[in-house]
Amino acid sequence: MAEGSVSSADVAAAFKKFAIHGDTKATGKEMNGKNFAKLCKDCRIIDGKNVTTTDVDIVFTKVKAKSARVITYEQFHQALVELAPKRFKGKSQEEALQDLYDLIGGKEPSNVGITRVAKAAAVDRLTDVSKYTGSHKERFDESGKGKGKAGREEIPDTSGYVSAYKGQGTYDDKVKEA
């Protein structure tokens, strides 16, 4: 095998990083088809001409066990052996495989296109509770913290007194005096 700049340990490390990407329960010993496709895309094995996403899916299906949904590192290596001559036409099997290792070695899953928190003036304005008016204002205390259910519902007064009665709560005192 041609001696290149990337060792098989670097490729194994990349395999493990991509295998656990997006799955909290993954051990890093097996990789699913989605993560294999992501590895091929992020490491530029898929070039759109010689190797397409369809080619990657076909190779994945070919190397995995019949009933399995994941591949091991050995099956991953076999998939690279299948993809190498397609990606690097005109090169020997060893050279093509080493070039593929060079593409993969030391790579990590990229997070391009992930959703970020919107920081716009409109969002700040809409979430500033000090600018609320009317009945919405009653839903928050002075610090801007929500009151929860008490701020949303009319809670009935079951004290027995009519509203706005000044002597509310004085009944017990009057009964003791008599």
From TrEMBL:
<feature type="region of interest" description="Disordered">
    <location>
        <begin position="134"/>
        <end position="178"/>
    </location>
</feature>
<dbReference type="Pfam" id="PF05517">
    <property type="entry name" value="p25-alpha"/>
</dbReference>
<dbReference type="GO" id="GO:0032273">
    <property type="term" value="P:positive regulation of protein polymerization"/>
</dbReference>
<dbReference type="GO" id="GO:0015631">
    <property type="term" value="F:tubulin binding"/>
</dbReference>
<keyword id="KW-0963">Cytoplasm</keyword>
<dbReference type="InterPro" id="IPR008907">
    <property type="entry name" value="TPP/p25"/>
</dbReference>
<feature type="compositionally biased region" description="Basic and acidic residues">
    <location>
        <begin position="135"/>
        <end position="155"/>
    </location>
</feature>
<comment type="similarity">
    <text>Belongs to the TPPP family.</text>
</comment>
<dbReference type="GO" id="GO:0048675">
    <property type="term" value="P:axon extension"/>
</dbReference>
<dbReference type="GO" id="GO:0001578">
    <property type="term" value="P:microtubule bundle formation"/>
</dbReference>
<dbReference type="GO" id="GO:0005874">
    <property type="term" value="C:microtubule"/>
</dbReference>
<dbReference type="InterPro" id="IPR011992">
    <property type="entry name" value="EF-hand-dom_pair"/>
</dbReference>
<dbReference type="GO" id="GO:0046785">
    <property type="term" value="P:microtubule polymerization"/>
</dbReference>
<protein>
    <submittedName>
        <fullName>Tubulin polymerization-promoting protein family member 2</fullName>
    </submittedName>
</protein>
<dbReference type="GO" id="GO:0005737">
    <property type="term" value="C:cytoplasm"/>
</dbReference>
